[in-house]
Design brief:
single chain; 2 domains; eight-stranded mixed beta sheet; five-stranded mixed beta sheet; Urease, subunit C, domain 1; 30% helix; Aminopeptidase; alpha/beta
Amino acid sequence: MELLQWHSCHREDRLTGRYIIPADIVPLLEEHTDMGELSVIGHSVDGRPVYLYCIGSGSKKVLMWSQMHGNESTTTKAVMDLLLFFRHGGETAGEILKHCTLYIIPMLNPDGALAYTRVNANEIDLNRDAANLSQPESFALRHTFDRIKPHFCFNLHDQRTIFNTGKTASPATLSFLSPATDEERNITPPRKKSMEIIAAINEVLQQYIPGQVGRYDDTFNINCVGDAFQTRGVPTLLFEAGHYPGDYDRDTTRKYVFCALIAALRFISGNDVEGKGYNAYFDIPENDKLFFDILIRRFPVKTGEGIVLKDIGILYKEELKDNKIVFTPYISETGDLEGFYGHREFVADGKKVIPIEEKKLETSVLLKLFL
């Protein structure tokens, strides 16, 4: 628990919430130029700089990038926490920087971050542009990859609140993937190495969030950056920051991402990563999509056939309003939702709830009844 205690005392408190933009991180990066090198590797569609921060002196080169999707900011916060960890020093920090050189792109898609969108200013998903390299941000990442020739890559993302682990009622607070290198999803040498590192991360995380670590789908897509880099022989790890109960700002999840980053870097710095321990990767349960943000069970609904009890699954849509992220609920599914879970659940059956006509079912009405 030492890492969690450290994080509680020393995390980068100037970054909170979901809306993290260039103006938030650039001053923080500049504060760290005394212990590392800050450079510009390219510019976004709208002309904003894409920054690279380099720290460490070791022979093992690790390239990591965050906010490839502009509305996925949890890992950016964790990366900035990581820089503070290196600043405060300590044995673990020293060992990592002695054996590794880290190349960090904390915000690959600054235009998307500002607009709080997945895509860039040309409405292109950068994680589907690895083959075409049609966007300046994609080119900046590939050019950096080719120039530094990393030994390992960390592809840092957020995932939606819908994901759980296996078939359980545990949210996938973090998920990982060793991307495939071919359609058959063969277990190639670079995959074994990334699997071994993920297994080491999972061993650490199980101490903190047991049962809340998932394994992401490994369907091959050469247009995805992780698949493309792993295909080129570089072990690549996909990190997916997910939901922790009640933590829609993901300021709790960020500390587990931070722990995962430290665990990965400690393993790389202290071992010759050969992939021998890759089998433990498959002990991590696969993700499923069984969660709603709110689940109302057995609600009476007026239909043409009379009153029917239906389960109602509600999700939140994240919307940028007045420079803040607003979580707007909407009805996602109705019917028999047995086997699904809600981050918040309510049961209408047996309560004095007046039936509502199906065509008049609205989230605002439902939430007034239960929240």
